[in-house]
Structure formats: C-alpha cells, structure tokens
C-alpha cells in the first residue's frame, strides 16, 4: 500500500460532479493534507479554476481532471450539475459511469490506500479487485441516509421514516414522493434506480464516512451501523476557513448602515432555483418583516436576470433596507459580520454546519429531499432554528409563512427566538471548543488506518 512505508496515506477522491459534493471533498482533502497525507481529487476539467483557491495544500492535493465521455442527449459543455436541469442529471451520472476504464487505469497506476466516493456504484467492486479500500464519503447527514431504509414501499411509510427514528424527522408528503421517485425510475445505462445506485455504493464499500459528530447525530449513526454492519467513521464538523479575513468593502459599507444583529442574510447555495412565483413570495415575506435584508439567490426558473423577477414596486419600497443579489457572495464572512442577525438558509449540509457555527438566528427553508431532514434536525431535534411552513402536498410556502418564521426567530419578545438562541449558543460553544474539530479528524484518520490492518 502506498501509505504504509512512511505512515502517510494516499487517497484518491472521486465525488459526484456537483459543487455541493466537490467542495466538501476538497475541504476534507485539506484536513488530510494538513496532516501530511497525499490526495488525488478527480474533477471535471473546468472546475479547477473554481476549486483552486480552496486548495490550501497544492503540494499534497493534486487535481486530476477527467474527460466527460459523450452521452446521447448530454451537451458537450456539460461538466457539473450546474450545467444541466435536474431532469437531465441522470445523463451526467451515465457519463461518469463510462469513466470506469480511465479510473481503473488511474487506480492501478497510483495504488492508493483508499478511494473516497459517493454515487458511483461500481467503484467499491473495482477497488476490491485492485486491493484498495473504498469509503463511501457522504455529503449528506446520517439521518438523511437513514431514510433509504424506510420500512415499506408506500408514501406514508417514507413520511414516518424507518423504525427507530425520532418522530421529529417526519417528512412532508411531497418530500416523501421524491424518495419514492428514487425507488421507481430506472436510469439509462446502469438500468438502476437512484436508490439501487446509492444502496450498492453504500453496502459494497468497506466503510461509510460522514463529516459530523456523534454528539449531534449519534442515534442516526448507530442506526446505520446496525443496518449496514460496517464501520461508520465520523470526521467531525468540517467548516471551511474563510479565504480572506475581511469582508469586501462594498458589503461591509452596506451592512454597517444598520443596527447590530438586525440584518437577515438569505442564501440557498449554488444550485437551488425557485419558481418565479415562489421567489416573489419569498421576497414579499422579507418585506413584511421590516428588517433589513441581503438576499443572494440564483435567478428563478425562466428568468435570466434576477431584477426581472422582482415583485412589482418591490425595489422602490425596499431600496433603503434591502439588496437582492443574483450572484455569489462570501457567505462565511457575511455570517460573521456583527450587524447580521439571522441566517435564512436552504439547509444544505455545508450551510447547516456554517449556520451552526455562527452567532446568527437560523431560519430554514429546505428545497430538496436531504435538506428537509437537515432542517428537521435543526428545528425539531436540536431546537436551534425555525422552519418555514410548507404545504404538505404541494411543497409551496407563502409570504406570510416566511414572515412568521423570521419574526419567531428575530422578534425581541419571541419566546421561540429566545429558546432557539439559547440552544444555539450551547451547541456552538461546544462545537468550537478547543481541539474538538482537530481531535475528531485525528481519530477519523486513525480509524481509517485500522481498516488497512
């Protein structure tokens, strides 16, 4: 094995080609490299410019671009999920399945200790033949993965989750239908459903890795360990360090116009796209609060520029206290600004942890399946956030629902706000305690070494 001679590991990583997977894998690679281990991260060719600034150890973390094979119906420019609709993502999965010969050649040449992966169901078998340990390294929570083990095929079975799960993680009916979709639609090429792909990847791997801790998700980890009968390895919370220590002057100047802890910051990650109607409901809900706000979202579906989708008269009515921005913003630096008081998030796993580590009141509005489970983890299990109510069947929210959730979190006389703030303070102080994060990752490395014995 490559890492046995000098006690340093060599790890190849092949995440699903979505920025919500590539970035967490690179963050984990930085943690390994900080300890002297060698990482080879397989990426789409054009992603190097985006990921490069996040690579803190370029001498130990090597990007290995891989060509995307041609697939009928998939445009030649497509490299990540940002380039396709959600309906066409199965074509990208098929394309990455076709990289198997190239990956086999790479692994045969490098002979790493481990291959970290998530959606590629064929990788554990390939790794086993090459005598390489495979780790299914998940970018979602153990609680989310647990829903793959729902007790029955009906929507109602999925709503309540598997036996042994707390009732607090009960799903909406419309979310359960998304899980049902995973079980029924067979994809081109592999002939597998998404659930079959995931279950094969999970069950055939040598271990499952999560960037979480037992203090937050212990019962869900134990549930998975009992179901899978294999090691569940926890890397601890991995939150990126800001690329720069200071916030861009234009954002700092704008935020500094308001009172401390008064601004609501809203961001939904790199992929969430609302319908125009829901986008407008969201903005009108923010307007109703009377609080200043900074909203950073992708333009809604069918709209090229975010300004084209603003509700009539909205810009004029809120111009002194609100910004709606259609591009990337430095989320971590904004969350640290003393005048930002609330983080309104989609509850992607990375944003969930960034919110947990911040001093902001958390308001959650999830969009896709795993985000709903993360949202329930925060709002009901841990009671450190307020969730916006949605329609059970249609998944729609209203401006009144947005307004109510924000006020529950932000209003000075809100009992809910006081409760979630106290709980949040307790968890943040615990997670940020000296040595907590580094000790967890050191233990993660030692548990990996144990797999090689």
UniProtKB/TrEMBL annotation:
Keywords: Transferase. Coiled coil: none annotated. It holds the Pfam family UDPGT. The keyword Ubl conjugation does not apply. This is Glycosyltransferase. It comes from Rehmannia glutinosa. The lineage of its organism: Eukaryota, Viridiplantae, Streptophyta, Embryophyta, Tracheophyta.
